Amino acid sequence: MSASALFANYARTGLEFDHGEGIWLVTKDDRRFLDCGAGIAVNSLGHSHPHLVEALKQQAEKLWHVSNLHVVAGQELLGKRLADASFADKVFFCNSGAEAMEACIKAARRYHYDRGEAERFHILTFEGAFHGRTLGTIAAGGQAKYMEGFGPKAPGFDQIAVDDIAAVKKAIGPQTAAIALEPIQGEGGIREIPVDFLRQLRKLCDETGTLLIFDEIQTGVGRTGKLFAHEWAGVNPDLMAVAKGIGGGFPMGACLATEEVASSMVPGTHGTTFGGNPLAMAVGNAVLDVVLEETFLEGVQSKGLSFKQKLAALVDNHPNVFETVRGKGLMLGLKCKVPAGDFVVAARAEGLLAVPAGDNVVRIMPPLTITEDEIGEAVARMEKAAAVLENKLKNEGAAQ
Ligand SMILES: *Cc1c(COP(=O)(O)O)cnc(C)c1O
């Protein structure tokens, strides 16, 4: 038996952090790491942001949890703010990304059921997608490696290739309830869905009465330089899942919907014990205070551009290590020629944290509060890591 009492379902680094300050994570023995992973795009305002800490402390002294049997003022406020700032009219709060997607899927199915079309329960999703780890969302994601050994795939999920509008047209039938996708695939490897494809999907949905679901769990709440990534395309969904960055590190998620779609979710149809509790809502509102400040999102856009340019230079400097840089705002990806995991390990040795993704990509997703100087420092560390890998390749070449 191994020493840990925990499930062995994670391949952990072994690093143990004691505290965080802004974009920095500090170990017990005082080693400092520049955090370009942000807890997988969660710590949107960095670590121990004073406004978030204050909001959580104040709420902790008043009230933690009352359940959804009662009115939660923080939910009313955050729901209204999210609706005012987006396509949505109505909001449902939960605790995670997968739960937010489940709520979208249930709302889409219920919408058609209410219209006498109970057979319309199929959801079309795309290759390379990731929507979570529940039984429903692994079926939606469609990746065999996440479904293997967990019983039959939940019915009603059909997968198609990205950017093949003819295939989507063919796949939409009398059973189709909705089309679900991430505007930029995160786990799939920072793969941007072409704007034109998103527009064509919206058009197809309108023509066929199909609902459009955006999974903005990773792209949302300022990550790409807009409050939500779909704003870049000017295409609104009918339903949207949000989580990760919205809580700045406090577990929470949300399903946003138009009035028409949300109206199917009447008492008894759905619920959660913890979702939207006063602690989560206090932090969620505090995150929005900052992200909705006048120039915050413009700042993310300009810092994102600057970071991407510097990463493009890094790629040019190390053509044997990297292939290209992609992504938007502060959701960036380095497509590697060496195994992406090797670069993540080499960067960690230089005191920089990044997150591997599919398609041999390393994700660079720092807190949105990162400064220009810190971007420079991050790239300098990546240069060092790349040089180490480059030397290793040379030595291997010489040895042959
Ligand atoms: C992380 C993620 C999820 C799942 O969120 P959990 O909070 O881990 O359940 C779903 N979709 C996307 C796009 C994600 O990035």
From TrEMBL:
Pathway: Amino-acid biosynthesis; L-arginine biosynthesis; N(2)-acetyl-L-ornithine from L-glutamate: step 4/4. Its EC number is 2.6.1.11. SUPFAM superfamilies: PLP-dependent transferases (SSF53383). It catalyses: N(2)-acetyl-L-ornithine + 2-oxoglutarate = N-acetyl-L-glutamate 5-semialdehyde + L-glutamate. Its cofactor is pyridoxal 5'-phosphate. Keywords: Amino-acid biosynthesis, Aminotransferase, Arginine biosynthesis, Cytoplasm, Pyridoxal phosphate, Transferase. N(2)-acetyl-L-ornithine binds at residues 133, 272. GO terms for biological process: L-arginine biosynthetic process. It comes from the Bacteria. It is found in: Cytoplasm. GO terms for molecular function: identical protein binding; N2-acetyl-L-ornithine:2-oxoglutarate 5-aminotransferase activity; pyridoxal phosphate binding. Its main location: cytoplasm. The modification N6-(pyridoxal phosphate)lysine is found at residue 244. Homodimer. This is Acetylornithine aminotransferase. It comes from Roseibium limicola. The lineage of its organism: Bacteria, Pseudomonadati, Pseudomonadota, Alphaproteobacteria, Hyphomicrobiales.
